[in-house]
């Protein structure tokens, strides 16, 4: 930042760097006045405040106003500072000041760098295109820094082709430009494009690696993110905080506790700087891997916590079934004066739902608007329907939906449909499924639930009708069932029906047969009602051998030492049959089994599940 470096010359101005409060800045201001140097230095002072303390923008504005001929660096600093606010387009005001205030003042490459950043932040293609046009007009079409910023900007705006066009216009792109191109690819969801850029790079710096790992993590490819991280270490590349956030988020996504623990140890060993974002990512990893006590240990150990940290802890407690603890923690959060946001309330409402605290949930929902001025969104409404529905208060759930201020979304009706299934209410189940199907007539889940409600009531014509409808509309499962288990640091994926190509397939089948035998002798009768088809599979000839979580559990029993809990992550809601069977397995094999399904955790132990069969 050469045009900004000169500002540090005066000792009083150098102090701005370490001052964060308005009071401190005003003291420096007073010192400059007392020493009579302010007239020469006011421009530099503005530059310094806006650059180092972008939180005090109003104050910088005031000082700027008193400045006769603000230098370009001061105006650039203002552009940059505003580009990071929620009103980024205000930057253009200072750009216009550069253009029109005095004839010898011209925009430089920093001006355009920051202006392009503004457009990315504004998320407006029009703004971006005008910044692009302006920099061309002022002859910066060959400036590599400006072009690199432009590549990033188009990436943020989701215009990969534009990014690529700019990139190709650079005759010899350096590592920064290539990394920007890589990031743009990942931002636009084309992680293969990003990988291609990565592979073709003649040299890479730590930022490149970090960007590639983040790209995989953000594009929903956590395994690739972890592979890339291991590769990065083999190459001995320095790891930074941002990178570890991506690595932990990949572990959370996959639910691989061993990898997560290892990443934690790595952070401590390599002394990666622990900021509030990384701490929160660490807490989230433990929570999403089902180790809530460790997650809370991280939480209590964090010096700085923000609203995301609190929300993550609250969400983790709710997901792991600790509803009361979640509410206790929320009380503490309020006491400490941390202002909750929308995400916090989703966690709190879920906390109420898992323990069936209906009135408490309703009270928190009301407090969103009353106490905090937060307008509840569709997701919050869905949570309340779920809250009433699971508690068996179906009429109130329906009443609540009917009184929503906006058109009820599929999620609200789906919550009612699940509740109707749970509480065997045929009439409401029909209504709810009809409403879901009005919004999307190919919603596989709605058909399956309705069919199961019919089957539960032994109304087999209804079941047949649903099947006919599904056939006629060509409804198919959107996502196949898949379970992940981590054994000795390796991640294994199992699909519904089993993976015949798995090297230990035969052993797994033998184990499944053994499980089946032992369940039978323990008196378990598999629910093989042929018309009861479930979330994952239509055929249930052998109830034990179909679902992916059963394969994963059997594999866990073969490979994991006695006493080591089996942790499985499933991408769908666990079905009734798997839930029953897993409870039995935990008892017969005396093994703790932890299943994370799409909604929450099930901790199975000694024949019982932490969800109390309520999910
Ligand atoms: Zn199942
Ligand atoms: Zn359960």
How would the blueprint of this fold be written?
Elements: H1 2-5, H2 11-14, H3 22-34, H4 38-52, H5 57-65, H6 72-83, H7 91-100, H8 109-122, H9 125-137, H10 144-156, H11 160-168, H12 175-187, H13 191-199, H14 206-218, H15 222-234, H16 241-254, H17 257-269, H18 276-288, H19 292-301, H20 307-319, H21 323-335, H22 342-354, H23 358-372, H24 378-390, H25 394-402, H26 410-422, H27 426-439, H28 444-456, H29 460-473, E1 482-487, E2 490-495, H30 505-521, H31 548-559, E3 566-570, H32 576-588, E4 593-596, E5 601-605, E6 608-609
Parallel strand pairs: 3-4
Antiparallel strand pairs: 1-2, 1-3, 4-5, 5-6
Helix pairs in contact: 3-4, 4-5, 4-6, 5-6, 6-7, 6-8, 8-9, 8-10, 9-10, 10-11, 10-12, 11-12, 12-13, 12-14, 13-14, 14-15, 14-16, 15-16, 16-17, 16-18, 18-19, 18-20, 19-20, 20-21, 20-22, 21-22, 22-23, 22-24, 23-24, 24-25, 24-26, 25-26, 26-27, 26-28, 27-28, 28-29, 30-31
Bound molecules: zinc ion (2 copies).
Textual characterization of the structure:
- This protein has helices at residues 2-5, 11-14, 22-34, 38-52, 57-65, 72-83, 91-100, 109-122, 125-137, 144-156, 160-168, 175-187, 191-199, 206-218, 222-234, 241-254, 257-269, 276-288, 292-301, 307-319, 323-335, 342-354, 358-372, 378-390, 394-402, 410-422, 426-439, 444-456, 460-473, 505-521, 548-559, 576-588, and strands at 482-487, 490-495, 566-570, 593-596, 601-605, 608-609.
- The chain is mainly α and 615 residues long.
- Among the domains are: 386-478, Serine Threonine Protein Phosphatase 5, Tetratricopeptide repeat (Alpha Horseshoe); 482-609, no CATH class.
- The chain has a six-stranded mixed β-sheet with strand order 2-1-3-4-5-6, with helices on one face.
- The model is unreliable at 1-8 and 534-544 (pLDDT under 50).
- It binds zinc ion (ZN) (2 copies).
- One zinc ion (ZN) is lined by residues 536, 547, 575, 577-578.
């Amino acid at each position: 930042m050469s045009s900004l470096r000169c500002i540090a010359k005066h000792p009083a101005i150098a102090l701005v760097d370490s001052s964060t409060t308005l009071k401190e800045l005003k003291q420096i201001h007073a010192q400059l006045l007392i020493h009579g140097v302010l007239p020469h230095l006011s421009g530099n002072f503005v530059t310094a405040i806006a650059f180092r303390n972008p939180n005090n923008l109003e104050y910088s504005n005031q000082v700027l106003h008193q400045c006769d001929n603000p230098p370009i660096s001061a105006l650039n600093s203002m552009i940059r500072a505003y580009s990071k606010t929620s009103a980024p387009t205000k930057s253009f005001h200072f750009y216009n000041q550069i253009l029109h205030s005095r004839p010898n003042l011209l925009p430089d490459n920093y001006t355009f760098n920051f202006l392009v950043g503004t457009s990315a932040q504004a998320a407006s293609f029009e703004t971006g295109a005008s910044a692009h046009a302006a920099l061309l007009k002022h002859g910066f079409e060959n400036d590599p820094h400006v072009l690199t910023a432009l590549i990033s900007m188009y990436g943020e705006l989701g215009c990969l082709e534009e990014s690529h066009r700019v990139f190709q216009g650079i005759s010899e792109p350096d590592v920064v430009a290539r990394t920007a191109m890589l990031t743009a690819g990942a931002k636009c969801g084309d992680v293969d494009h990003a990988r291609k850029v990565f592979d073709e790079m003649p040299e890479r710096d730590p930022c490149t690696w970090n960007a590639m790992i983040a790209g995989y993590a953000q594009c929903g490819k956590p395994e690739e993110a972890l592979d890339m991280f291991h590769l990065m270490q083999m190459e001995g590349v320095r790891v930074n905080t941002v990178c570890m956030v991506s690595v932990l988020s990949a572990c959370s996504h996959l639910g691989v506790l061993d990898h997560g623990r290892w990443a934690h140890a790595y952070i401590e060993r390599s002394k990666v700087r622990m900021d509030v974002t990384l701490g929160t990512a660490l807490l989230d990893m433990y929570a999403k891997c089902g180790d809530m006590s460790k997650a809370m240990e991280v939480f209590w150990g964090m010096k700085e916590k923000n609203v995301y940290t609190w929300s993550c802890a609250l969400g983790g407690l709710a997901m792991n079934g600790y509803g009361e603890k979640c509410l206790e923690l929320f009380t503490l959060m309020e006491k400490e004066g941390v202002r909750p946001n929308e995400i916090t309330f989703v966690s709190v409402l879920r906390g109420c739902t898992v323990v069936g605290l209906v009135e408490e949930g309703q009270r928190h929902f009301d407090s969103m608007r009353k106490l905090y001025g937060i307008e509840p969104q569709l997701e919050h409404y869905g949570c309340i329907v779920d809250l009433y529905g699971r508690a068996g208060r179906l009429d109130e759930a329906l009443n609540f939906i009917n009184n929503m201020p906006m058109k009820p979304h599929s999620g609200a009706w789906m919550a009612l449909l699940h509740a109707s299934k749970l509480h065997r209410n045929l009439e409401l189940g029909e209504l709810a499924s009809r409403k879901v199907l009005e919004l999307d007539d190919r919603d596989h889940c709605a058909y399956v639930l309705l069919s199961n409600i019919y089957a539960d009531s032994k109304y087999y014509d209804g079941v047949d009708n649903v099947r006919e409808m599904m056939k006629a509309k060509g409804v198919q499962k959107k996502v196949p069932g898949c379970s992940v288990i981590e054994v000795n640091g390796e991640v294994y994926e199992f699909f519904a029906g089993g993976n015949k190509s798995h090297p230990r397939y035969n052993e797994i089948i033998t184990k499944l047969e053994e499980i089946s035998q032992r369940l039978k002798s323990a008196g378990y009768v598999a629910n093989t009602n042929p018309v009861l088809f479930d979330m994952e599979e239509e055929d249930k000839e052998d109830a034990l051998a179909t679902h992916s979580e059963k394969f994963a559990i059997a594999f866990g029993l073969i490979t994991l030492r006695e006493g080591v809990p089996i942790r499985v992550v499933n991408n769908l809601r666990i079905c009734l049959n798997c839930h029953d069977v897993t409870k039995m397995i935990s008892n017969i094999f005396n093994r703790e089994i932890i299943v994370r399904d799409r909604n929450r955790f099930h901790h199975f132990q000694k024949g019982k599940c932490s969800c109390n069969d309520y999910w």
